[in-house]
Structure formats: C-alpha cells, structure tokens
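A reminder from the course coordinator: this example appears on the midterm review sheet, so study it carefully.

Given structure:
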C-alpha cells in the first residue's frame, strides 16, 4: 500500500522503478492534524493498518512517531526513517529485509 502524498502517481512513477505491482493508495483525511510532535500521517496509518503488521518508510519520521505506533498498534511495525538527501538506499532495503526475516522466525 502506498502511504504517500504522491497519491496515485506512486503507482505510475515508483512501482515500476521498485519492481512493485500496482498498490492501493491511502486516502488522507481532509481535516488538519493538531500541531504536535507526531507526524500527521501517523494516526491515519495506524488506523489503516488495523492491527496488521506494517512497514512505513518516510523521510519525516521521528521518535515520537515510533512511540505512537508502539503504544497504539498491537502488531509488529517498522516505522523506518529514510534520509531525504539520499532517498531509498540499499541500507534501507536491508533493514526492511531483516525485519521481514525476523517476523518469519
């Protein structure tokens, strides 16, 4: 699932580059998130995950988002910050692969 402000453009631009199939896209709520330390995507993503394991790659994640996910999401989750200056790197994919391997054990 794409959880990006790119919306449907993620399927046109990113999916082919990453070798992914067409994926569903999170539709963001129209209301504004109250100001605070937690990213505006965090609450909607936890709600959308609905207790299922998920990986979230984003360049704006902070410790506050990780804490919020840990407190309000009962399943395994990997909120992983990507360096916006480099984009997704092999190191980021290695973190995701290791997390997935650990879930299989």
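Designed residues:
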């Amino acid at each position: 699932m794409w959880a990006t402000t790119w919306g449907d453009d993620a399927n046109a631009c990113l999916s082919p580059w990453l070798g992914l199939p067409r994926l569903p896209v999170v539709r963001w709520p129209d209301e504004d998130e109250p100001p605070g330390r937690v990213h505006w995507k965090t609450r909607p993503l936890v709600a959308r995950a609905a207790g299922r394991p998920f990986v979230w790659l984003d360049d704006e994640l902070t410790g506050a988002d990780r804490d919020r996910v840990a407190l309000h999401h009962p399943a395994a989750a990997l909120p992983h910050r990507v360096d916006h200056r480099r984009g997704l790197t092999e190191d980021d994919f290695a973190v995701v692969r290791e997390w997935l391997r650990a879930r299989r054990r």
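The chain has two domains: 1-30, 35-104. The longest helix spans residues 90-104.
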